[in-house]
Amino acid sequence: MLCLRCGYILDGVNTKKCPECGRPFDPHFDRTFRRPGARHRLVIVIAVTSCGVAVGTIGGLLLSMFLASLVFHEAGQGII
Ligand SMILES: [Zn+2]
Question: Torsion-angle region of residue 12: left (phi > 0), alpha (psi -120 to 50) or beta?
Fold first, then answer.
């Protein structure tokens, strides 16, 4: 478990206060400290979401370019 304020590692700390910044915490009440990896999961969620958005954007762009090339191709044939 980590300090909510400063991120100090509270595992093995005998007092109920962060030795680094003095913020009180309760090992039995998980809203008073942060679990390691919680930020990691958030980063992964953000990364996956932004990857999905990027793939969607690129896919949409390629699709619109493909459709535009079809339209222009047919328009070119029409002129000639
Ligand atoms: Zn702290």
Answer: left
Distance in Å, CA 27 to ligand 1 centroid: 14
Could you tell me where the DSSP H helices lie in the chain? 38-79
Separation of alpha carbons 32 and 4, rounded Å? 7
Cross-strand pairs, 9: 2
Spacing, Cα 53 to ligand 1 middle (Å): 36
How many Å lie between the centroid of ligand 1 and the Cα of residue 35? 13
Please name which of 33, 26, 29, 23 lies closest in space to residue 1, comparing C-alpha atoms: 33
pLDDT, tens digit, 9 for 90 and up, residues 11-41:
999 999 999 999 999 999 989 999 887 667 7
This prediction's pTM: 0.47
Q: Ligand 1 centroid vs 2 CA: distance in angstroms?
A: 8
